[in-house]
Write a structure and sequence with these properties.
By secondary structure, this protein is an all-alpha fold. It is built from one helix and no strands. Keywords: Membrane, Transmembrane, Transmembrane helix.
């Protein structure tokens, strides 16, 4: 693979896994309050 392709792959992986980790940390810090059904 070319250098540009490797750099783009690393950026894409970082965005996906970084977003996942950020959402997990955000939910652990501020858990969602359960909503009443009905």
């Amino acid at each position: 693979m070319s250098t540009g392709a490797i750099i783009m792959m690393i950026i894409a992986i970082t965005v996906v896994w970084g977003g996942l980790a950020a959402s997990i940390l955000l939910l652990r810090r501020f858990p969602e309050a359960p909503e009443d059904e009905g």
